[in-house]
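Hey team,

Filing this mostly as a record. A colleague (T.K.) asked me to run one chain through the structure pipeline before their review meeting, and I want the input and output archived in the tracker in case anyone asks later how it was produced. No errors, nothing strange. Just documentation.

Input sequence:
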Amino acid sequence: MQKYGSLLSRLLISAIFIFAGLGKIFDPTSTMGYMKSTGMPAVRFFLVMAIIFELAGGISVLIGYKARLGALGLIVFLIPVTLIFHNNFSDQTQLIMFMKNMAILGALIAIAINGPGGMSLDGRKPALS
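Output structure:
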């Protein structure tokens, strides 16, 4: 049960990052507009960096290849994103988004500490010689 649970948790947590990264690729204008509305500088640079972090980290966690490193990368990405974009706690929606990101951080920390589990590229057993 544990190996299937780890796989399911990696699938669920990585999906949000992979879909977000793909969304930014297919509609960069909307994302850059939102970033500009917060006063963020160098939006093209940060958009590209967000896509790289979300896709590389999301795929790493999903397939369980260097999953601890992928989870750490997503943690490094998610902390400033949360503080920059979801800091208006008087807005109920922003408070919920902040708390959602805290839950995602918790899952990523668990992966970073415990690894991806047995059903992963990192967890495969070496071939016998």
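Quick notes for T.K.: The chain has one domain: 2-114. The chain is about 75% helix and 0% strand.
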